[in-house]
Automatic annotation (TrEMBL), chain A:
PANTHER family, per the entry: DIPEPTIDE TRANSPORT SYSTEM PERMEASE PROTEIN DPPB-RELATED
UniProt membrane topology term: Multi-pass membrane protein
GO molecular function: dipeptide transmembrane transporter activity
Protein known as: ABC transporter permease subunit
Thylakoid keyword on record: no
TrEMBL record, chain B:
PANTHER family: DIPEPTIDE TRANSPORT ATP-BINDING PROTEIN DPPD (PTHR43297:SF2), OLIGOPEPTIDE TRANSPORT ATP-BINDING PROTEIN APPD (PTHR43297)
Localization (cell): Cell inner membrane
One Pfam family in the UniProt entry: ABC_tran
Lineage, opening ranks: Bacteria, Pseudomonadati, Pseudomonadota, Alphaproteobacteria, Rhodospirillales
Molecular-function GO term, any one: ATP binding
GO BP annotation list: peptide transport; transmembrane transport
Keyword Secreted listed: no
Record InterPro entries: AAA+_ATPase, ABC_Ni/Peptide_Import, ABC_transporter-like_ATP-bd, ABC_transporter-like_CS, Oligopep_ABC_C, P-loop_NTPase
PROSITE patterns named among the record's database cross-references: ABC_TRANSPORTER_1, ABC_TRANSPORTER_2
Annotated membrane topology: Peripheral membrane protein
Domain ABC transporter: residue ranges: 4-256
Gene3D superfamilies on file: P-loop containing nucleotide triphosphate hydrolases
Protein name: ATP-binding cassette domain-containing protein
UniProt-listed CDD domains: ABC_NikE_OppD_transporters
């Protein structure tokens, strides 16, 4: 178990190193001079040179990379090019929007997908199964931004139940904050839930054919009891894997959805920073997103160990299932 | 009244195409097993032994249909409600499976898996079921002091796992124990110990045993009576000693000749094998299903079906030209 953790932690560190190098490298080769961006095309050459020097742009790339990473590790963020405040000051209030949004949509997706997937598997080939699979096919086909627009038309424009967009801030109360996040979360969650439902269904179907399910039935457990007590935990391993992978799509989705709903979140920040060529913000936020995905996948690896005692006790290959 | 009375059991798979005739997997299987008795069921792979066991447990794979009757204490299991079957499985009848590697849930402790039946059937509290499971595990040779009931299956050897599977089966004191090739997946030394354990349990607890095996030796050791299956039918039944001493069906004789034996034949000499393979369901001939592989078969065998007659007690073979007993 300890060795398993060490290996995963090392993999996480290497992933973050690679991601930061990639982000830095890409922004390095892209055209665009931050000093020119700040001062404008009419600036004098000596003013530009002075600014480049004060920003450290005249230093070698490797040095600038090391300074950047060293500062990040100590929690020191560089100043945004457009707003002139440290990136952390831009980031924190936006995380207070995007974090809850991501959590809310993940929760919704799981709360929908697990029961529906299990139900579809248990009713395989019957009308319930067909209906759930049909609905999930539609859910996969519908892009989340379009779903978001439809939701706005229905719940904000026609029914006037929920605000069409914007975020009042958590100061306005938990209810108002959640109301503003509800539609974007649903728009993000439904396509994810659709995929997760199918994964859950196939994982449960596979487990239903396992020998130990027959053993459970031979003990006198009903079909439902056997599934609940012996099937679900075994079926969760592939489901958790997909959930982890989906989390990165969820983060990518927030960039689009936050723009559809005009939410002041991290996604909107990075979108604006890209259009304003605010490379300092871009690189910090992208590395932060990469770190989030890395940490989530690390947590997924940990959950394998919780779900499967064979990993927990470091059982060698071959003592598991075969035949 | 026999404990288990299987009468004319058929299991069919629906035809592949709509309107196609269903393929019979089991065809008129009749067996009886008395309380405390032991019946061996032998035959090659694919002849329907396991299917018979699953039909008795009412755990046939989805899509298969059973006909005839399976009476347990006079109660027909084929017409019983699912609720009633759940009350019988594990309580009155239990099964030990072939593959101890996969028959246990990898993510639950063995103590937990043994305790589940008693909680379900005997209404024991969590604590009492735990104690009960420890006692049962001890009984099957998994001393809780050496093999913790909190172990997960992956930490156990094949033999220990099979003991855990047996513990699950006998935890609620069933009247009927079905053992489906319980030693096939184990090494030879372990096989002998698991067989001893099953025999001990049968004697001590007065269980009736349906021992399914392709191994005539296993059946000879465990069962007073035996039945030989071929292509979904019973071809020979009788007291084990008599059947093995003087097999009357050419198939049984062939099975005995095909056994590897250290006291017969010479090293390097190929083992006697029955030529050909078991005909698949749906492609079985109208007459004796063994005719195509049988040296004694004639035109009658290929056209006229043979019946084994009533099971139990007497030595019978479903053959037009049975092997003569040695003079």
């Amino acid at each position: 178990m300890a060795w398993f953790l060490v290996k995963r932690a090392l993999a996480l560190a290497l992933t973050l190193l690679a991601a930061s190098l990639l982000v830095f490298g890409v922004l390095e080769v892209l055209p665009g001079d931050p000093a020119l961006l700040i001062l404008g095309v009419n600036a004098r050459e000596d003013t530009l040179a002075a600014l480049r020097e004060s920003m450290g742009l005249d230093q070698p790339a490797l040095w600038r990379y090391l300074t950047w990473i060293g500062d990040l590790l100590r929690g020191r963020f560089a100043d945004s090019l457009t707003y002139d405040v440290p990136v952390s000051e831009l980031l924190l209030p936006r995380l207070a929007v995007s974090g809850p949004l991501a959590l809310l949509s993940l929760t919704l997706a799981v709360a929908l997908a697990l029961p529906l997937g299990v139900l579809a598997a248990a009713r395989r080939g019957r009308i319930t199964d067909t209906a759930i699979m049909g609905a999930s096919q539609i859910g996969i086909a519908v892009p989340n931004f379009w779903l978001g627009i439809l939701l706005v038309l229905l719940f904000a424009v026609s029914l006037r139940w929920l605000p069409a967009g914007g975020f009042p801030g958590w100061d306005a109360g938990l209810g108002a904050g959640l109301a503003a996040l509800l539609m974007p979360a649903v728009a993000l969650a439904l396509p994810q839930a659709a995929i997760l439902t199918r994964v859950t269904r196939s994982a449960v179907l596979e487990v239903l054919g396992e020998d130990y399910m027959r053993t459970a039935r031979a003990k006198g457990l009903s079909r439902g009891e056997a599934l609940w007590r012996h099937g679900l935990r075994n079926a969760m391993i592939p489901v958790v894997t997909i959930m982890g992978l989906q989390f990165s799509f969820l983060l990518a989705g927030t960039i689009i959805i936050e723009n559809v709903f005009n939410l002041p979140g991290v996604g909107r920040l990075v979108f604006q920073a890209i259009s304003q060529r605010d490379l300092v913000v871009v690189r910090d936020v992208v590395v932060l997103l990469a770190a989030t995905v890395g940490v989530v996948n690390f947590l997924v690896d940990l959950s394998y160990a919780l779900l499967d005692p064979r990993l927990r006790h470091g059982a060698g290959a071959g003592s598991g299932r075969h035949g | 009244m026999a404990l288990l009375d299987i009468r004319d059991l058929t299991v069919t798979r629906p035809g592949a195409a709509p309107g196609a005739p269903p393929a019979p997997l089991l065809d008129g299987v009749s067996l009886t097993l008395d309380r405390g008795g032991a019946l061996g069921l032998v035959g090659e792979s694919g002849c329907g032994k396991s299917l018979t066991a699953l039909a008795v447990m009412a755990l046939l794979p989805a899509g298969l249909r059973a006909g005839g009757s399976v009476l347990l204490d006079g109660e027909d299991l084929l017409t019983a409600s699912e609720r009633r079957l759940c009350a019988l499985r594990g309580r009155r009848m239990a099964m030990v499976f072939q593959e101890p590697m996969t028959a246990l849930n990898p993510v639950r402790t063995i103590g937990d898996q043994v305790a589940e039946g008693p909680r379900h059937h005997l209404g024991l509290s969590r604590r009492a079921a735990r104690e009960h499971a420890r006692a049962v595990l001890d009984r099957v040779g998994l001393d809780p002091a050496r093999v913790s009931p909190d172990s997960y299956p992956h930490a156990l050897s094949g033999g220990q796992r099979q003991r855990a599977v047996i513990a699950i089966a006998v935890a609620c004191g069933p009247a009927l124990l079905i053992a489906d090739e319980p030693t096939t997946a184990l090494d030879v030394a372990t096989q002998a110990r698991i067989l001893d354990l099953i025999l001990d349990l049968v004697t001590d607890e007065g269980l009736a045993l349906l021992m399914i095996s392709h191994d005539l030796g296993v059946v000879a050791e465990t069962a007073r009576d035996m039945a030989v299956m071929y292509a979904g039918r019973i071809v020979e039944t009788g007291p084990t000693a008599r059947v093995l001493a003087a097999p009357r069906h050419p198939y049984t004789a062939g099975l005995m000749a095909a056994r590897p034996q250290h006291d017969r034949g010479r090293p390097g000499q190929p083992l006697a094998a029955i030529p050909g393979v078991v005909p698949p369901p749906g492609a079985r001939p109208p007459g004796c299903a063994f005719a195509d592989r049988c040296a004694r078969a004639d035109a009658v065998c290929r056209t006229r079906p043979v019946l084994a007659g009533e099971p139990g007690g007497r030595h019978r073979a479903a053959c037009h030209h049975p092997v003569e007993p040695p003079a």
